[in-house]
Design a protein that fits this description.
The complex is a heterodimer. By secondary structure, chain A is an alpha/beta fold. Chain A has a single domain (about 30-365), classed as SGNH hydrolase (Rossmann fold, 3-Layer(aba) Sandwich). Helices cover about 35% and strands about 10% of the residues of chain A. Chain A has helices at about 5-25, 55, 65-70, 90-95, 105-110, 135-145, 170, 175-185, 200-205, 210-230, 265-275, 305-325, 350-365; strands at about 85-90, 115, 120-125, 150-155, 280-285, 325-330. A six-stranded mixed beta sheet of chain A has the order 2-3-1-4-5-6, sandwiched between helices. In chain A, strand 2 (about 115) and strand 3 (about 120-125) form a beta hairpin. The termini of chain A are far apart. Chain B is an all-alpha fold. Chain B is built from 19 helices and no strands. Chain B has helices at about 5-20, 25-40, 50-70, 75-95, 115-135, 140-155, 160-170, 190-205, 215-220, 235-240, 250-275, 280-285, 290-320, 340-345, 345-365, 375-395, 395-420, 430-455, 460-470. The longest helix of chain B is centred in the middle third of the chain and has 32 residues, at about 290-320. Chain B starts with a helix and ends with a helix. The interface of A and B includes residues 5, 218, 224 and 225 of A.
């Protein structure tokens, strides 16, 4: 091995690395997310990849929507003719924090053995653990390609304030998708909102994208453990239960009683969601919340909501549903306080069963096309 | 070892290889290696212990050199620079306490300098006593041999480690209720102990060459091989050390190739497999036999690529410093039988045990008054060797089971080889190839199943996982 040979190896290696780095800017590798071992070698996941402790949950959070859907059971193949396809979108309560996939609303509905319009009901959990209607809209927009027959959209007031629409990391890191939604549905967001992460030249190089590429790779690797164990989140033996003793502050996202300012709530995003669904029926569900009886419970229902704000929002929802003929189910106080886990919207399996019962009853009355 | 530490080591080795060729090479290697002993030591919850254990490594090594060196060769004039370098480094690191910032050279804030001075004085007094009054006789060398093994046992028996931690915590005024065997993680001691035992034993048998204190220290704590071997022999190592360092492009090419290959094996292949490899948690969670085998295969390849990757890194770094460290792995999973597997897996460890246990015990049994059959001798020596190798990894029933598994495997293979000798030689060449491939597959799976005992924390978890592998759950 001569010194010249060594020098050439080093120079050529560096040159190739630089070339690959720059070439990656031209070829957006985000589309790599569509390539997945899930639904081929590993079974599809029953809910989206999400997790902060991959070594225990065999799951991780990433922002690549292509990869998230490609790893999901819904992407397993074309929709069978005998299937009545129901999609459940929403936040962490839909995804099922501290619940096994079969214990969630989607899981319980799926295993209920329902038949609608002469078809077998299959229910898919497309919830993702951040609270933002824009995130739900983005997921629904993508999910429509899977030809749902019904969309169930559990929501809660916390998903409505404009100030929290774009800050969810999955929204912020999908600026191009959000741009398209803003433009297409005329949503009242500023395209230059700094919350939306715009990739720089550096971000698009191999070095800049190393984290997202590594996440794509790790998602595939964790498919082994998902297939082997069926585990997709860690279940701590002990956890901090949802607060029932509350602060006396009654402000809500900068708004003070007595009037909840409708212009600060993203009803336009909700309406855009209904437009996205088109002719596919959408069942809006006001998801159950913890109604506390602890300290300051006369002022607040729970950690999230002062009573005045939540009551007014419920009233708005009821009025809009009646006026605009929305299919709307208000389950806000369906579940007793002892059936919540670590948050005012996270239910125990028993709580989920109660919610499932109500939803099941409603969807069984769906009219067929 | 973190990637950052390895890359820093590479830069240091490359600079040393270029800049320090002859004069001062040994001293610089000693200083860097002594610093690495501290820098690599992980932080420990017992106050000050992550400083005292590296200090003890240096102290024990110095005392072992005195014990293994004939009195007439313990020249103060020739060896005081090495002692001065060590004392200087220990004091310098101690003084970083007063910088008010943490440095990457010590895991936590060093103890008070007064205390360090007291400890140095005690070590110096012990060293002076041994220097002045001891000679490398059979009794004192045996005592030192036993002493090193006792430390080893203390570190490897979880209940003893926990007890020692309680004692140390008690001295420090820390809660003894929080004591754990992990409190005594002494970086590299497994390898350091082997090197010390090798020199003590070779001094007893008169095979140990004369080496200076610097050479002895660099051999024991050579920084590329400190935490994961390989376990070199001192005469070979010092032979390289005494050669003038003249690296050519072949050396750089070889060093770079091994280093990069090692990084790839460790940080790309092994760490990726580590995401899905069998462990104490997944072993109880896996639902089907098929996936259990996948997790087991992942572990089998992870441990190979991890360990051989570290070896490649050490060999590459050594090469930059003019030291040709011995090979530790030679495609072990491709070998057609278990004996060949062990001749090619962690080779320097098996050579050590062959030299200091297997061969002496075999000789002793053959020449003993009580007559043992050949089978009996093979059984005793192979079983004993493998159980000891198991115990070297940790004194737990699982490591004993792993040793017994391999001991039995080697014994059965030995008897099978004797039985088939001559019988299989007459088979057509194609049949022999088929037998080799079949033997390779069988050997790999035998080794892989052995990893169940090695990787899992208890016999019950191992048993549970073996049932899953067999489809019995």
């Amino acid at each position: 091995m001569s010194a010249r040979f060594l020098r050439n190896v080093i120079v050529k290696g560096l040159a190739l690395f630089l070339l690959l780095d720059i070439a990656l800017v031209a070829v957006n590798p985000a589309g790599l997310g569509r390539l997945s071992l899930y639904n081929h070698i590993f079974p599809g996941r029953l809910r989206f990849p999400f997790g902060e402790d991959p070594t225990q949950s065999y799951n991780l959070s990433l922002f690549n929507l292509d990869a998230m859907f490609a790893s999901h059971d819904i992407a397993a193949g074309p929709k069978p003719a005998s299937e009545y396809r129901v999609l459940v979108i929403g936040d962490s309560s839909t995804w099922g924090i501290l619940l096994q996939p079969g214990q969630t609303l989607a899981g319980q509905l799926d295993s209920a053995g329902l038949n609608l319009c002469g078809k077998t009901v299959r229910v898919y959990n497309l919830g993702y653990p951040t609270i933002s209607l824009t995130k739900d809209l983005m997921v629904l927009d993508y999910a429509m390609r899977y030809q749902p027959d019904l969309v169930i959209w559990p929501l809660t007031l916390e998903a409505f304030p404009f100030d929290s629409q774009l800050t969810s990391p999955i929204v912020a890191n999908n600026a191009a998708r959000v741009d398209a939604l803003i433009v297409h549905y005329g949503l009242p967001f500023d395209l230059r909102d700094p919350a939306l992460v715009r990739p720089t030249f550096w971000n698009q190089t191999l070095i800049g994208q190393r984290r997202s590429l590594a996440d794509l790779f790790r998602l595939q690797m964790y498919g082994v453990l998902w297939a082997a164990t069926g585990i997709d989140q860690s279940y701590p033996v002990d956890y901090e239960h949802a607060q029932t003793d509350l602060v006396s502050d009654v402000a809500y996202h900068g708004m003070q009683p007595p009037t909840l300012d409708e212009s600060k709530l993203a009803f336009s995003v909700l309406e855009a969601g209904l437009l996205v669904a088109g002719k596919t029926p959408v069942l809006l569900v006001n998801e159950p919340i913890l109604v506390s009886t602890g300290k300051n419970s006369a002022l607040r229902y729970n950690f999230y909501y002062p009573r005045w704000a939540y009551d007014q929002w419920r009233q708005m929802m009821n009025e809009k549903a009646a006026n605009q003929d929305w299919d709307y189910l208000d389950l806000w106080n369906l579940v007793p306080a002892d059936q919540f886990t670590n948050s005012a919207i996270h239910l125990t399996p028993v709580g989920e069963t109660r919610m499932t019962g109500s939803v099941e009853q409603t969807i069984s009355q769906q009219s067929c096309p | 070892m973190t990637l950052a530490y390895i890359l820093v080591s590479f830069v240091i080795a490359a600079v040393l290889g270029v800049a320090v060729r002859e004069r001062g090479r040994l001293s610089v290697l000693l200083a860097i290696s002594a610093l690495a002993v501290y820098a690599l030591q992980p932080a420990l919850p017992v106050r000050g212990l992550d400083f005292w254990l590296p200090t003890l490594t240096l102290g024990l090594t110095v005392l072992a050199w005195i014990l293994t060196t004939p009195r007439q060769e313990r020249s103060w004039r020739a060896n005081w620079p090495a002692a001065a370098i060590l004392v200087g480094i220990v004091l310098l690191l101690g003084l970083t306490r007063y910088l008010g910032i943490s440095t990457p050279l010590t895991a936590s804030n060093p103890p008070q300098v007064q205390m360090i001075l007291v400890v140095l004085a005690v070590v110096a007094a012990a060293g002076f006593f041994l220097w002045r009054f001891s000679k490398p006789g059979r009794l004192i060398l045996s005592a030192a041999f036993v002493f090193v093994i006792l430390i080893f046992i203390l570190l490897k028996v979880p209940s003893l480690s926990e007890w020692a931690s309680q004692v140390l915590r008690g001295w420090n005024g820390q809660s003894t209720l929080l004591a754990s065997p992990l409190d005594l993680r002494w970086l590299g001691f497994s390898y350091i102990a082997f090197r010390l035992l090798h020199t003590l034993r070779d001094r007893q048998s008169g095979r140990l060459p004369s080496v200076s204190l610097s050479e002895y220290l660099v051999y024991v704590i050579f920084f590329p091989a400190l935490s994961a071997g390989p376990i070199d022999r001192i005469e070979r190592f010092v032979g390289d050390l005494r050669q003038p360092l003249s690296l050519n492009s072949d050396d750089y090419g070889e060093a770079g190739t091994r280093f990069v290959l090692g990084l790839f094996k460790k940080f790309v292949i092994a760490d990726t497999l580590g995401l899905v490899a069998m462990n104490a948690t997944t072993a109880t969670q896996v639902r089907t036999a098929g996936w259990a085998w996948v997790l087991l295969y992942a572990y089998a390849f992870q441990i190979y690529f991890d360990f051989s990757g570290y070896t490649d890194i050490a060999i590459g770094l050594g090469r930059l410093l003019g030291i040709k460290l011995p090979e530790n792995f030679n495609a072990p999973y491709l070998k057609p039988n278990l004996t060949l597997f062990w001749n090619n897996w962690h080779m320097t460890l098996t050579q050590w045990f062959r030299a200091y246990f297997f061969n002496p015990v075999t000789r002793a049994l053959r020449s003993s008054k009580r007559k043992f059959s050949i089978s009996g001798i093979v059984f005793i020596t192979q079983m004993g060797t493998m159980v000891l190798i198991g115990l070297w990894h940790g004194v737990t029933w699982n490591f004993v089971a792993w040793g017994v598994w391999h001991g039995l495997g080697l014994f059965v293979h030995n008897r099978w080889s004797v039985w088939t000798k001559g019988r299989f030689a007459v088979l057509p060449i194609n049949w022999q190839k088929v037998l080799n491939v079949g033997g390779g597959l069988l050997t790999f799976h035998f080794v892989a199943i052995g990893w169940v005992f090695f990787a899992l924390p208890s016999l019950s978890v191992s048993g549970q996982f073996l049932q899953t592998l067999a489809g019995l759950k």
